Queue: 2 jobs
Job 1
Amino acid sequence: MEVTMRSYSESKARWEETLRHGTSIADLQRAVKFNGPTSPCVAGSRSVCWKAFLLFRDAPFSHWPLVLAESRSLYDSLCAQHLQYIRHPEQLAALSFDPLADDPDSPWDTVRRDEIARAEIHQDVRRLPDDPFYHEEAVQSMILDILFLYCKLNPGVGGYRQGMHELLGPIVQVVARDAVDRNAATMDDSADPTMIDILDARYIEHDSYAIFSHLMGRASAFYEVGSGSESTNPGKNTIVEKSQYIHEVALMKVDQELANHLRNIEVLPQIFLIRWIRLLFGREFPFEQLLSLWDNIFAFDPNLDLIDLICVAMLLRIRWTLLEADYSVALQLMLKYPAPLPPHGPHTFVDDAIYLRDHPNAAGGVTLIFKYTGRSPTAPTQTQKSSAPPLQGFGSLRQRTLGARSPLSSTARLLQQPGGVEALLQGATKNMMERGEKLGINQAVRDAVGEIRRNMQGFQEARSPGRGRGISFGDSRPVSSDYVTILERRNRRLGAMLEESVDNLKRLATSKLEGDKDQAIEALEIAAAKVQFVKTCLEDWSLSLPDDNLPAMNTLTISSPTDIRSPTVALDTTPVVMTSLAVGEARSTLSSPDRDPLTRGLPTLPEEADPAPETATPAIDKMDTDEAPEPVTLSTSRSSAAATPISTPRSIPTAVATDPSAPSTPKERPKGPIPTRSTLAQSSFSWMLEPDTTLSSAHNAFPTSRPSSSGSASAAAHKKRNNPSRERNAFLFGEVVSSEGIDERKLSADEIFGLQPIRK
Amino acid sequence: MANDEYDFLFKVVLIGDSGVGKSNLLSRFTRNEFNLDSKSTIGVEFATRSIQVDTKTIKAQIWDTAGQERYRAITSAYYRGAVGALLVYDISKHQTYENVTRWLKELRDHADNNIVIMLVGNKSDLRHLRAVPTEEAKQFASDNHLSFIETSALDASNVELAFQNILTEIYRIVSSKALEGAGQEPNLKGFTLSDSETGTKEKTEKGCCA
């Protein structure tokens, strides 16, 4: 611990630096908010801030020592009560109790039980992260005692739960770092007595306990599992409920496309959220970044109400990658969350969460996605195309809500031609951005511009009349000459916007990137975002364009570097050609009623909820009420989804790899919301059974949810059968003979392997 | 790892008491790494590795979870789709061996009936601390129709073999069943993943091993 403690003079300087910001909660919150180098948590005493946020909350500065004195004496009495015999076993021996008596009230018995509990805790304390601090013996015993006392005092939590130790660890470390040695302070005449009180090294353990138990006041709910087992008592599983809420309600509200995608690929949110939440993101970020995240959580959310939205914000930042990910890719991404780069370090997730709390709707989601990725998520086309057959197993909430409105048949999807202007533009900008990162930016810009042009031309050729008309576009909005005029005006403005972006791209290209590369990348992103925006507007003509005087794109951009816009570079005519082409195409897209069924029907945003950031406010509440499942209905809706024969081709955890050419290899999940012991026919092995001549019920349940053509033969053959008669044939392992003996001993298969189905 | 094409994908779960070495078995098998002070698992981790059996490539998706008995928030998700389970105990801690029956019950309650189970006595390097005789565990495994092996994630002995055995066993079951139905059923080729899958997968694979 001495290793960790700062020198007295440094601690003192940090104390003074902290107080410089003020001592009220509001002062400190303000100072911590941006978490830059001047934050009192960084330049000052983080432990003082944490104590202020969590322990002193309403107490004036003069009362701080009193608050601590109280909690410290409480801790002392707890130690006396519960640790006496553990710390001083000789006192136990001096008692007149028979150590061998089988008396539950005997202190011997208590100590024995306590030692078992402590052994369990100690096993994890030994495995705290690599930081040498945690492996000092004094620190380990401190952490062990705190956890033990906490569990003694809170039997309702159900004893020690793995993960608590990693919540406590950073607290002890932060408190210990700032601590001052009272003796050293006595040499210093100018020492602030309050400082010595607050930072007294003798009370590191006491104060850590106080902070930890305050935190656990809320966080303990993340560790509750309920009394029954999961199958008998699913409702009591707080973390699972919370995870489902985050996915099905919170995320659904702000990014329906992503929420649906996660459901379609069958990622159960608790798989990754359990660690995110229980450790307060402790394993997701590097230690110092984690501390700054906690700074902001403690400052603005001491009751941990924003945790759900922080999770949502984290998902939003990686939403593009997630949308293209299958089950295992997505899971690996979320279990190994990509480190957010400065200046948008993890602490900014708290800002995002606050923003989402105030904008709990699609527009709020769009704003954040746009802010961090430069792309706005109104264009499902591309992602849907690239991620396996879309909308498989999309059988629950959303389909019911949208069902009548969206012409989502597999034929419609198969008819899907390469995108439309929107997809072309989006594809091109995406490529551009990717390549801009990988290669030199110059080349990337030139290529991208060229590509857009080529695509446009190709698109124009390809876009022959054959595409099915009649899917009404804006059916409630008759196309009159007024509309045509409006659309023409709108298109001109969109064209102008595109032109501006193209100009900027050209300038970037011609500037040869003299200057700041980051700035160039940013400019690229902005240009891409603008193109994206135009694409969005083209896609949904009901979007109002931003006021000319107040270009929305600029209000939204992440600081647009002005030097790149400087009109010094002569314009090439090429991009203008592209632009006018694009606008021409756009017009035809808009005026013809055959907008892609895919684009239209995708489960992103209902038309009435306007996803574009600048039109955010008006559209929103509908979104809330119409689209978001109520929290109360959550578990049932989830259950019904699970009970339906969902066919998701990428459901990885099955026995068999699927063939994309036969995308529907539906693996029926175990029936019912909670998988109980399933029969073979219901299991993921069931496809191994002999073929059934009758179509399974699973087959018929959702005919439209299956691709009607591609690879249907093999797909059908691998579908799980659900014929009850199979259960009698279900003995699976009997005939297997393996020579893979163990210990070189030739055993019959029955001896080696579990050839009998386990009996209940 | 060179490419991510595979003929079969098997999900295998690691279960057993806290501290018996599940995570290290996983890291030894998938990354050939061992960490004496590895952190306790919170929630789940998973990793993949492909092996060859006969001419087939089998991709093992191995899931690892917290061993703490009460830590059951994710049970159903954890066992869903699992076709194999390594039930791990610590040969130097008898309690972890005694708890094997509880884990078997858990498997009975939550996993597929036909899941292939292998009992794994880990930490076989701790010879001087052995608390569970090999013969006793072998007998237990045989009585309960489990396969059995002793491993050491620390010195890597038998780790490869343990996974190889269970994956081969699963493969034999799967392929014998598939052959049986070969008349009417289309064949296993249908399960081969095509290249379209390869790109994304490959990328992640690298990430996961970083």
Note: Residues 228-235, 380-449, 457-479, 548-760 of chain A have pLDDT under 50 and may be disordered.
Job 2
Amino acid sequence: MTTEATPPPDATPPTDATPPVAKDGGGGGAGAGPRALARQRRLRSVLRFWRQYRTHRAGLLGLAALVLFALTALTAPLTVGSDVAGVTGAPGRPLESPSGEFPLGTDRFGRDLLGLLVWGSRVSLLVGLLAAVLSVAIGALVGITAGHFRGAYATVMMRITDWFLVMPTLVLAIALATVMSRSLGTIVLAIGVTSWPTTARLVRAQTLAVESRPYIERAKALGGGHWHIMSRHVLPNVMPLVLAQTTLMISSSILAEATLAFLGLGDPTVVSWGGLLQEAREAGAVSSGAWWYLVPPGVAIAVVALAFTLCGRAVESVLNPRLGVAR
Amino acid sequence: MTADAASAAASAPAGAPGGPARGPRARTGASYLRYGAGKVGGAAVSLLAVLLTSFFLFRLIPGDPVKYMTGGRQVSAEQLAAYRREFGLDLPLWEQFTDYCRKALTGDLGTSYQFRAPVIDKITEALPNTLLLTGTAFVLYTALGILLGTRSAWRHGGLGDRLNTGLALTLYSIPSFWLGLLLIIVFSVGMGPVPGLFPTGGMESGGEEGFAYVVDVAHHLVLPVVTLVAVDYGQTLLVTRSALLDEMGSDYLTTARAKGLRDDLVRRRHAVPNALLPTVTLVFINLGRTVAGVILVETVFSWPGLGGLFYQALSVPDLPLVQGLFFVFAAAVIIMNTLADLIYPLLDPRVGR
Amino acid sequence: MNTQDQHGRARPGPRGRRSRTLRFGTAALMLWAGLATPLGPAPQRAEAAEDKQVLTVAVAQSVDSLSPFLASRLVSTSIHRLTYEYLTNYDPKDARPIPGFATKWSPSADKLTWTYTIRSDSTWSDGKKATAEDAAWTFNKIMTDEGAAPANGSYVTNFRKVTAPSPTKLVIELKKPQATMAALDVPIVPKHIWEKVGDFSEFNNDKTFPIVGNGPFVLTGYKPDSYVRLKPNKDFWRGAPKFDELVFRYYKDGDAAVAALQKGEVSFVQGLTPAQAAALEKQKNIKVNDAPGRRFYALATNPGARTKDGERFGDGHESLLDEKVRHALFMAVDRETIIDKVFQGHAVKGEGYIPPRFPQYFWKPSAGQELAHDPAKAAQLLDEAGYRKNGDGKRVGKDGKPINYRVLCHATDPNDKAVGQYLTEWWGELGIGVTLNCLDNVSDPWLAGTYDLAFDGWSVNPDPDFVLSIHTCAALPTTPDAIGATDNFICDKKYDDLYAQQLAEYDPARRAEIVKRMESRLYDTGYMNVMAYPNAVEAYRTDQIKSIETMPSDAGNIYGQDGYWSWWSAVPAAAEESSGGSGSTGVVVGVVAGVVVLAGAGVFLAMRRRSTADDRE
């Protein structure tokens, strides 16, 4: 990968090797120095990162939107409460158009759609996040090990990766969701398991680049095992890439969640944005002109997906200015 | 899922040239043949792996096809066993699989449980419809993506670029099915001053002939194609743009400008053709993915293609049909990728082993 | 002007680009021409009259087969009703059996031989005469060839022998008396065509058109998931249909179908949601037909799945074996709310098993017998049955674990999911957990008995025999792997005795009396909680259809009737009102093309201006 062009923030190496010594207890008081140093260095690189990130207006916009959505989702139990999803106590008539009482109208059960939208953000964001984390975790694991071990293992892993890469993701995810029972876990799994190969390839390339550096040689010569090399040297160096990848992946996971829910493969008892869209369609909102049932969830999905994409691109371009994205 | 495709594509060309070395044209016909044979062989292995996956993955779908076929009739255990024998479902899985592969090689993908017709017939029935939709959309969004991407890169940082990439990213974040529904509401049902100009779904009104038929199909094609183009042109745009930006720092462009060539000519004659090379990969990957990703748009617009068929087949589960369709979807992507691999070194002398 | 100058200098650029765009355009057109033209072996039409009256019906369900021996989906059997004659038909007024292919029928004194007089004025669409021989051949084929049995095999299981002593006489000998002999819904096919068919299990009757039949319509074209086209049979003995063509057009999406109706692309749409019906009611030229349905919508209890020999299988919750528990669950369901909120008034509150649409068989519980909505009483019943609440407010089963019922629901039915949410909350208040298990295809857990409760629903025929038979012990499967005709494994001695009585009872009034007693018994067991009779909610364009026969004649439905009445009787509205002709399509396409070109030019110009502006920067 091209990330080599600029030294990643964490690239100044050998000090990284010391913390495990400190943990062993053998280093004692001497270990505190390097650890503090490392902490300072990290802090500095985070600050440097932030200073550069700040220059990306689109990235800031995306970040602001994300903070807003995250706050909405986290405070939802206080602002709307789980009662909004209850059908027996629904406050309105089915499919009321927006009014003072219901700013976004009501759904087919007479529930407040604004409340549902807020409540649904929890599931949509959670599923998006978990699926992305799962996907990136698998990708990073495969990428790092394939980059580290080489040989037959790497060949096999990369063959599998390439093969997953050409699989029609949506088709495979639909198939997986059909095979398993309808639940949030299924959706997370279906998305995570099908979308990791991109990350694996990127991470492997980065791993290869990192491992070709002289200090890895040195670490090996000093007796660093596979686990030590991978966790102490490679992982910190691929971490920025992994983070950027996660941000981008969340965006596509949220879209994928909405897609699967829309195709009726989600859990019907859980409120999510994609699920709301599917309910709207089932209730005939498109032809009966109930736009308030259809437009807000779609806009919410698009805005969150866009926000994550903007953030991801900004992070990517800070780490790798050569790509020149969003500049 | 689209974002994932874009990053995949964005990384692929970066990885493809295999190092910065702009070596001499050492490639000979023989080495290209060897390279090509390797790629084709890899594709064949992939196809076999797809066959394997589709066969075993879909066996996991809960649901006994034989019970579906008998449709609520009172059937004894013996009769059920007879049905299982007829469809070869009583054999050990491994034998079923080898049997399936053997037949697949001769173009026989089995018999659909729900339509009681050869799977291959059902697929060839729907395939042209899907190709018509995706092919049209593909040509348009590739053209649009390259055109706008070039413009964006050339004047990068300007207002036009920001609007351009901003719009592309926004459309790219919109769920395609949702956009389709909105288009139906506005342009098909009609909303406010906008009359319902386009049909709400399907591929033809039926009963038209000759030129009128072509016009009728084209009329039905507009909204689904617009939907696909809107959500898909973004990634072509972004990749073209970043490829061109990479290229723009090159010395030869400065030289060309220094020679006094007009800006416009430098762009058209030098920068764009070179920057388009990585886009080729993306273009082919896209075509394959579009075929597979068309399920949603086909569902929303009642387009009688492979996507709708797949969805129907999954709910039964109509195993032979599901397997056949999955194979077609995956094969589309694999074949297109291989084509990209084969064509790429012919276009770019730097690649080739 | 400066821009003008810039524009001038940039000339060569746009021209080059334009030609490239042109090349792209040409490529796209060629792609189209290549793909689009061979697609449609355009259906042959004798005369391409522009003012043809076409009745277009929106459908969503795919045709499973056009062979009457295989088809079981509603859309396919409806098409067979239109293209083939059945021995009898049903009166649109009261669903009484009336002559179809047979003009008269009567049983012998021992009730075991039925003789049908076949009409002599029916001809196949290829000119050959339709006779009793065709009917006998059809029945014999179903009886002897397993490959021809899938669709209608259940009608002939009790037949001993079918013969045609003369072209106008058909004789059916039975093994046991059977009261349903005037309700044999089996399409009669032309022997001279079908005897050439080899393997019936693989023949779908969809290769050569027109398909030879003798119904009111002739099937002239079919393209899967696109359309089914039918022409009127001018020689039909009851009189030819009034429309020049009947087309079933596919809209996989309900909203797309409704939108098509609003635009006049189709004349008729069925299966409307409450919201769609409300929106359409406000529109000009559209009539919404909200008719009592022939379906019941119920919650079926797993009474402990078992085979005919009493071998138990499946894993239904043991507490459901207790009638008190079943009654408690019954009473915790507020059917009024379901009608009001889920169906939004487009359904009738459920009572007995058979919908009020069939007044001769409709039964409702007496005041003392009724299990009315009463959550307090329900809680009390559960306490009495020994299922008390634990510290967490959950009711505990005999095994000491909190009770949690798995409710099987159809993922494709929005009503299941909606009612399921209400159940979760209602039973939750009783202290009973609910897990909604929504599947595309429920048949596997259903047949295996691995569920506790399930959403259930059947369309009831004018003759209720079938829906009654599915709750008899005889319908249970022979072994756990076999498939029985049973709906949900109910087996009740009292009910079975009554069933046998009604089947042998040839007097309609007395038979109806027994049927009502069966419904009463079924209600008391609490196995089937009939929550609603959903209405058939349909709409059609009054500027395309002037009149159309519903069934029953007053306040009945149109789609999926027991007969061909609706489409056969439909009268076209005045010609000048019809819309959606090919002429207007051309105009629309012209307009669209214009708009696209203009928009393209606009974008192009805008981009030029922007780029020149950038140049200046």
Note: The domain at 116-323 of chain A is CATH 1.10.3720.10 (MetI-like fold).
